[in-house]
Amino acid sequence: MAALQKIRLFFPLLALAVISPPAEADEPLHRQIDRMIQARLPSAPAPLADDAQFLRRVYLDLTGRIPTPQEARAFLADGSPEKRLRLIDQLLASPEFPWRMAHVLDDWLMERRTAPGVSRTQWLEYLRRTVEQNRPLHLLLAELLQADDHTPQEATAFLLARNAEPHAVTRDVGRTIFGVDLQCAQCHDHPDIDDYNQDLYYGLFAFYTRTSLFTEPKSKRKLLAEKAQGEASYTSVFDSSIKKERVDPQPPGGKPLPDPKLAKEQLYLVAPAKGVRPVPRYSRRARLAQVVRQGTNRYLARNVANRLWAMMMGRGLVHPVDYFHSDNPPSHPELLERLADYLIQTRYNLRGFLRQLALSHTYQRSSLPPKTLPAEMLAPELFAVAQLKPLRAEQLAWSVMEATGISTATREAVRSQLLRDPKMRDIFQLDARRAALLEQMVQHQLARRMEGNVRAFVREFAPPVGELQDQFHATAAQALFMNNGNLLRSWLAPRSNNLTGRLLKIKDTNKLAEELYLSVLTRPPDESERQAVAQYLKGRDKDRPAAVQEMAWALLCSVEFRFNH
């Protein structure tokens, strides 16, 4: 009983996700995707990626790491025609998927900002828990926009990180939630984009013009406050005759939402006073959250669909992802609308949506175009060839740790520790649900133990705070970190339970080459690579540890390792 209580204390909110197929048309979404992409192609696209390439890609996209050599061998040896489908479902149900998506959502919504009063650990755990419980994605977004006493405390991070400054919030809500970068429309209508005008900007601004930061007198804690009065207005800096004294709140693509009529004495639940945080009876923030919670706003649905598509495919149907307007149409308008419809119909089921993308041939295509492929087919907006995607900082960190054996060794140490108590071991062996619980606990502790290592990679490889990483930018500091850094050097120092230690136990150079390439690049070596390994090790018996370490280091620093392809 005491052992069971330990489990309850460790994961009080555990909710094992069940992936149930959503309601679909007669034609599954992944086939509709392929049909609509194919309709734009002048000739046949690149063939499907081979099993090794697909395996590495789907692990990186859905778990944020490369597979272990054991996982690679098992998949490559499986002759079942259903093995890709089974792997996709396995990874979506894995305890690593919520951790991966927490970082994706953090990049998307916060661009690595931090918020006063909400630690980064709290914020990421909030996102991870949301994904683990398979909560509809639009409900998460609604919580971030509302961020009041009726939402989790962690939900305030989105607004607090922008200091609740109405213009900063308006710009980022426009970009991240609705896919429109309205910054240029704050002072005047956009000079080049007719869709981006001051009416659109200030309609969104009106939801947050009454919001501000409140400092609690005793604790000095930063909280969100909202007034019951205050209107949005504008004057164009180009032409002072173009102005509006009052702009009603209006979400992009929606109707104006004027305030309800309330008597003066009814305006507040908590009236403003010195040292008192005001709470209005009617909240404009909550009203915008209600729009998002309904899930039917087309700007919202298209933006979510486009960003998730870009995560999996390497490029949005609308590119850049926050530049939705009539002069920058989607490459495949019908497809984007279908994806948005699917999200609405399935209530923004994240797992279900990513499953359909991963099952498509469009996602599974090779990144290596055949020599016969016409040059015009290489245009990235056609999706005829899989796009190269630079690894994000967290993906790179976890992949390096997996390749060097650091993650595997730590994972097994955590599992052994959890199973040391015979009563706990018996509980975990009772059924599949408890076995899955064990893996979640292992992953939870593994992530905590590796947190410092991941932060080291984030410092070197993440873009500056507040910027979205949409292109590959290598720096001298990054090259030095990989080529000369003490962290990687320590992970490759020969030990019994790491990559170098395993390789040194293998005398046959062919088998050593296979273990090396499977561990780092998730593929077997070709004949020339086998010969290169044998040649490099020839006559180096006395300094074999250094030679093996150098080969592993070279592959980890290779272009092939640095990209998801």
Percent of residues in beta strands: under 5%
The structural domain count equals: 3
Total helices: the number is 28
- The count of strands amounts to 8
The helical percent reads 40-55%
Shape field? globular
List low-pLDDT spans: 1-24
**First-last Cα distance:** 48 Å
Mean pLDDT over the residues:
92
Give the radius of gyration: 26 Å
Task: Write out the strand line-up for the largest beta sheet, numbering strands in chain order.
Answer: 1-2
Structural class: mainly alpha
Characteristic key phrases:
565 residues; globular; mainly alpha; two-stranded antiparallel sheet; 3 domains; two-stranded antiparallel ribbon; 8 strands
Description:
This protein is mainly α. The chain has three domains: 17-94 and 300-384, no CATH class; 138-257 and 277-294, no CATH class; 391-564, no CATH class. 51% of the residues lie in helices and 5% in strands. The protein has helices spanning 2-10, 29-39, 51-63, 69-77, 83-92, 96-109, 120-132, 137-146, 157-160, 166-176, 198-205, 284-294, 298-313, 333-345, 350-359, 361-364, 393-404, 406-418, 422-428, 432-449, 451-461, 476-484, 486-492, 499-504, 509-521, 527-537, 544-556, 559-562; strands spanning 211-215, 222-226, 232-235, 243-247, 268-270, 279-280, 389-390, 563-564. The chain has a two-stranded antiparallel sheet. A two-stranded antiparallel sheet has the order 3-4. The longest helix has 18 residues, at 432-449. It is globular and about 90 Å long. The model is unreliable at 1-24 (pLDDT under 50).
